[in-house]
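Q: Entry one of two.
A:
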Amino acid sequence: MDVHNNTPGTFTALGGNEQGRWLHARLATSFGDPNTVVPRGFEAYARILHPILRDRPKAPETWETVFTSETLSMEEELVSWATVAAVQGQQVERYSQGSDLVAPVGIDPSTPWVDAQGWRYGETVEGFLDATTLSRVAVILSRYTSTPANGVAALWEGWGSGTSARYASSKARNLVNTIRWLTGGVRAKAHPARSRATAARLQLPGRNHRLYSAGITEFTDPEWQSGAPWADAEGDAHSPNILWPADHAWVLVTEVDYDSTVVAGSRALMGALLASPGIEALEVGEDIEEHLRMVPGDTGN
């Protein structure tokens, strides 16, 4: 396949991993070292914060009555980190952690954190960029590459029907499904004949990925999931963990255990991301991985 061909793709499973080999020269060799997942050598870097889910009982129900009513009626929405921080009188800094804003749900279910308007705040979601935010980012990324219709999407093997033994917890899965529903994403139809097992494997430090041909223009539509061949047995298509165009002008990394997505590329691209409405972005450095937390005890797989 000609990596500089600008013909639109259709999420085709790649038969070889040569299109991903360029990453090896820009990444550490051992999992946990600096630049394990975020490639070195780009002009600028930005961090896209994953929106936080909040919910509250629909009137006239309250938190005291909703769980004893005949119908559990809740309203839900996605909000920015800045919104959550403002409720607590805080500010979001470029290396803030989502876990510092919101206590994990379930630590003490009897006393959930509820604000003055009755909103309960959920946990940040690691390793998943919702369809609406990804589509907004994709529109900007498509303007900063000479090959917007030709690129690669890399999916971690551990999602859904992948070959890894690790799977998301049921609570996390439900939260991700709720976010997909809220952002208008559709449940993609599973394609057993084009499963992840047929796509080439790219081995990076601590993570194995499956590779698909996918130009960034494919992701400018929030309903891109409907055409993704990596959907699991239940029809859910996870957001890619790594995306890059054929000309390597930038790279987008949604690491499995990070609460935000990192984009590396030109300063002009970062400026566009930081100025774009609907995208909560923060300028960071190449050393971003030294500031983000992984799930305790994770050693990759």
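Q: Entry two of two.
A:
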Amino acid sequence: MKNFQKLPTDLILDIKTRLKTLSGQINGIVKMLDEGEDPEQINIQFKSIDKGIQKAHYLLLDEVYRKTLAIKISETVEACPGNCGNEERIEFIRKQFPDLELDSLTEKMKEIDALKAKLENYKND
């Protein structure tokens, strides 16, 4: 089993609140179906649930990926003795970190992993 970092309590509460709200909306759709409500109104509720689940999922992924990337950047900076040949790239990623979009986080994690691997090889040579 992987060693995951615990999520912040406020994030957990936020996501749980969102999921409880979504659960109520789902129950509302079931009731609407039972009562033969207008399909257009049911569709609106489905769209609302879809947006809600996407937002909760985004919050979770953003937190997990940002923490992981922050740790990886920190480890890579520590592994670079100051003359490793990748200082500029590492510093560039470190400076970009606060503004990275979720889609970019995984790409940057791969990049920092590759830099860290190079540094480990550099140390072993």
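A: Comment on entry two: The chain has one domain: 9-123. The chain has a mean pLDDT of 83.
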